[in-house]
Design a protein that fits this description.
The complex is a heterodimer of chains A (about 210) and B (about 375).
Chain A: H1 2-7, H2 16-19, E1 26-29, H3 34-46, E2 50-53, E3 66-70, H4 71-77, E4 91-96, H5 101-109, E5 114-117, H6 125-170, H7 174-187, H8 192-202
Parallel strand pairs in A: 1-2, 1-3, 3-4, 4-5
Chain B: E1 8-14, H1 22-41, E2 49-55, H2 61-73, E3 79-82, H3 86-99, E4 102-105, E5 118-120, H4 129-139, E6 143-149, H5 152-166, E7 171-178, H6 184-196, E8 201-205, H7 209-221, E9 229-231, H8 236-242, H9 244-247, E10 251-254, H10 263-276, H11 284-303, H12 308-315, E11 320-322, E12 325-329, E13 336-337, E14 341-345, E15 351-356, H13 372-377
Parallel strand pairs in B: 1-2, 1-3, 3-4, 4-5, 6-7, 6-8, 8-9, 9-10
Antiparallel strand pairs in B: 10-14, 11-12, 12-13, 14-15
Classes of the chains: A alpha/beta (about 210), B alpha/beta (about 375).
């Protein structure tokens, strides 16, 4: 029995996504009708703040964490849906009533995080909204990390080049060149990578002390 | 076409009469039959009598689906009353959906469900758990041990309780779960462990036999200095089974206790005892099973139809005087506005009611995050 007891001593930590469920605002883009009514009711039942729109807006305010889009009416009526997939403003959940190649093609090209099928069923709405939010947040934070890493990688390449340049020009060791570079960057209050980039661009380096 | 106006209207009743959950389900069955009998004595539905068709799923969740289907397809029932565990309810959902028949489900459960064909007449967590936490933390103590049977309901309720305790500067010393079928020895070990930690109270979410084992063990282990136990599942039935001594002084939160002093309750309890025996007790499960039949039939009469959509369109208009007090269905989520009460077991094995909500509380089955703000503002929208 002690085995059983120890296994459950640690309570399951609720993810902040679940905990703050009702703080996530949702925009539902669908024409009026029975399907929209049912989805709307379920979202309100769960307790999400919700706004509905039709036709799709030109711009998306950043207040929404999730955009739910009825896909068939978009395809059938040839509406423009301006969605920047390289930098989406929110998580995207599609509401679909077909699974044919055309619909699948749209779903993939919009890079949706989740899909809800029609006819409507209440079970799955909450899960899909949370999964899409999590996926969206993770992707966004991963993109941010990648951008940071890219700029760090660039900076380190500049620094490497600048080190060699200074070391040759002043006839000092690479280590001494780096120390010099870093000292000057600190004096000028700029990132070492930035200064290194400048030096390489101008092909000039002056050390007041020499 | 001679059967256009059948003399009797078949209704399905699905409660286990055998197996692990037979005890509460038998109580619910009797409450359902009592309500049907009363309605029939008052003329049924426009002179047609309700004919209950009872089936026994034997406490096996997988049996509920096929039996619900049999009731609909073979017996042609118009409504179904029943279900106890969440697993039993889940098993019936696809069937009642497919045939578009309404299910009235009388058990408190963990929330996070909405099915258009179900009317939920037991409490959601926001209609009892919060009030119990508030009472215990303010009046009894803040160092708490939590115990329970290991399935979805106790786990979810313990999660909520822990959150409420921790946001009120309380301290959960330990949390232990045992399988639903745990034997007396296993429960005794848990009681021993809990007693050694000297909590100010224990929150028990045991279900079934474990309840009586636990209270009896706690009495034996702490005879000199009893440790209060708070629960959402310990009803008059369990107190009777464990013995009044083991139950004495402990707390339960529920929409209904047998001791509720509404005239409707006093009258119906009297009738129930006269029919089923003076030793019979009524409980929160009994009461929900009882009032939901009246609610359903009132809605059918108002809708002049058994069609699920039509009944659901009318049902929210009904203010029904249940034994617990006036109740109604919340059309936002098909759950019920219910009263919230805290009771403490007295020397007769009945509950002295310490707190009653000012009004029936609005159900919020999708409430995830509970905090002290809920402790302060857990009041209801008025009927």
């Amino acid at each position: 029995m002690s085995k059983r007891l120890s296994a459950v001593q640690q309570p399951l930590e609720l993810s902040t996504l679940v905990k703050n469920l009702r703080q996530h605002e949702i925009l539902l883009i669908m024409p009026e009708g029975e399907n929209r009514k049912k989805i709307e009711q379920q979202i309100r039942r769960i307790g999400f703040p919700l706004k509905t729109e039709w036709p799709p807006p030109e711009d998306f305010s950043s207040n929404y964490q999730v955009v739910m889009l009825g896909l068939t009416p978009i395809i059938e009526n040839d509406y423009d849906f301006h969605w920047d997939i390289s930098n989406p403003p929110a998580a995207l959940v599609l509401v679909v009533d077909y699974e044919n190649p055309l619909v699948l093609q749209y779903s993939l090209s919009l890079n949706a995080q989740a899909i809800i099928g029609l006819p409507f069923h209440p079970l799955g709405v909450l899960s899909n909204l949370l999964l899409s939010l999590q996926e969206f947040k993770q992707t966004r934070s991963m993109l941010k990390t990648i951008r940071n890493l890219e700029s760090k990688l660039n900076a380190s390449q500049h620094i490497e080049n600048a080190k060699h340049f200074i070391s040759e020009k002043q006839n000092i060791s690479l280590e001494a060149a780096y120390k010099l570079l870093r000292k000057q960057a600190m004096e000028q209050r700029m990132p070492v990578g930035e200064l290194a980039k400048e030096i390489i661009a101008k092909r000039s380096f002056s050390d007041e002390k020499t | 076409m001679s059967n256009t106006y059948p003399a009797e209207i078949p209704v399905g009743v699905i409660f286990s009469q055998t197996g692990v959950t037979a005890n509460p389900e038998q109580t619910m069955l009797r409450a359902t039959l009592l309500a049907i009998d009363r309605i029939n004595r008052q003329g049924g539905i426009n002179g047609q009598q309700l004919h209950p068709i009872c089936v026994d799923p034997q406490s096996v969740p997988e049996n509920y689906g096929p039996l619900a289907q049999k009731l609909i397809v073979e017996d042609n029932v118009k409504l179904i009353f029943g279900g106890y565990t969440s697993a039993s309810r889940k098993a019936m959902l696809p069937v009642i959906g497919r045939y578009d028949v309404l299910l009235f489900y009388p058990t408190q459960y963990e929330g996070f469900e909405y099915a258009p064909n179900v009317v939920y007449t037991g409490a959601a967590p926001n209609q009892g758990c919060v009030q119990l936490a508030r009472y215990m933390l303010q009046n009894v103590g803040k160092r708490v041990c939590m115990v329970g049977s290991d399935y979805i309901w106790p786990r979810e309720i313990n999660r909520i309780m822990r959150e409420l305790i921790e946001t009120s500067d309380g301290d959960v010393i330990s949390e232990m779960f045992l399988p639903l079928e745990a034997n007396k020895e296993a429960v005794y070990e848990v009681a021993k462990h809990v007693s050694s930690q000297h909590p100010e109270f224990v929150f028990s979410n045991f279900v079934g036999k474990s309840i009586e084992y636990f209270y009896q063990a706690m009495l034996e282990l702490n005879a000199d200095k009893p440790i209060p136990i708070a629960s959402l599942t310990t009803t008059e039935t369990e107190i009777q089974a464990m013995g009044i001594k083991a139950g004495f002084g402990h707390y339960t939160a529920a929409p209904y206790f047998q001791s509720v002093e509404t005239p409707i309750n006093q009258e119906i309890v009297k009738e129930y005892k006269a029919t089923y025996g003076q030793d019979e007790v009524t409980t929160m499960c009994w009461e929900a099973a009882y009032f939901q039949v009246h609610l359903a039939i009132k809605a059918v009469k108002l809708a002049e139809s058994f069609h699920a959509d039509k009944v659901m369109e009318k049902i929210a208009d009904i203010r029904h005087s249940a034994p617990q007090g006036p109740v109604r269905v919340d059309p936002d989520n098909n759950h019920c506005f219910l009263w919230s009460r805290i009771g403490r077991v007295n020397e007769q094995g009945q509950f002295d009611i310490l707190v009653t909500s000012d009004t029936a509380l609005k159900p919020d089955p999708y409430l995830v995050s509970y905090s002290t703000s809920h402790l302060e503002t857990a009041s209801g929208e008025s009927l």
